[in-house]
Specification:
Number of strands: 0
Number of helices: 7
Mean pLDDT: 86
Distance between the termini: 48 Å
Low-confidence stretches: 186-201
Shape: globular
Helix content: over 70%
């Protein structure tokens, strides 16, 4: 009974978070740091939770064109790269249609990743994680060190904070992924996935 109640609350969670994101949108987008460092991850997490709530049904739906999660990973890489471009942030703030497209991009990216991450395997995950973290750190440092204003709607000082957020998320994502990857790939020799050898006399 308690499990059913928990599942019911989990089913409502993405909708509640999305409503909260909508209410907080003016505050989130008033700052470049909050726009990139809070709103983007929040929308992505909402999408991931939506995929988790849908369970295997959504994974089976996208399975024919998402072998090993490659389509999901490529789409997410393109989404994250595009929304790191300063001009894209300007358009999202200044034009409502682009803002809606931004929200849909991040939600779909989170849904695809939530349904595909496990099936991708450690090697493909590592390829994506290393490239994404490197790109995010590099762009974050550019934002921090740029002497001129990159976004027309945000000030130079806000660029530094946005860049710091990006570097933070790159490090955090890598550190969150690494322990599970080490265990899964059995690098430490204590994975439960390793075959057991039974000795007989």
């Amino acid at each position: 009974m308690r499990l059913m109640s928990t599942s019911r609350y989990m089913a409502w969670l993405p909708g509640v978070l999305l409503a909260a994101a909508a209410l907080l949108q003016p505050w989130l987008e008033a700052s470049m740091a909050r726009h990139m460092g809070l709103e983007f991850p929040l929308l992505f997490i909402i999408g991931w939770l939506t995929a988790s709530t849908a369970g295997r049904r959504f994974a089976r739906l996208i399975e024919p064109w998402n072998a090993k999660g490659l389509t999901a990973l490529v789409f997410t890489a393109l989404v994250t790269a595009f929304w790191m471009v300063p001009a894209a942030l300007d358009l999202a703030v200044l034009h409502a249609g682009v803002g809606v497209l931004k929200v849909l991009n991040w939600l779909v990216a989170g849904m695809l990743m939530g349904a595909s991450w496990r099936q991708a395997g450690v090697v493909i995950q590592a390829f994506f994680i290393f490239n994404w973290c490197w790109m995010t750190v590099a762009v974050g440092l550019i934002y921090q060190q740029a002497p001129q204003q990159l976004c027309s709607v945000y000030l130079v000082d806000d660029q530094w904070n946005a860049g710091a957020f990006m570097v933070f998320w790159a490090i955090a994502v890598f550190l969150l992924w690494l322990p599970g990857a080490i265990k899964s790939s059995n690098l430490l020799g204590d994975s439960d996935d390793s075959p057991k050898v039974r000795h007989t006399d």
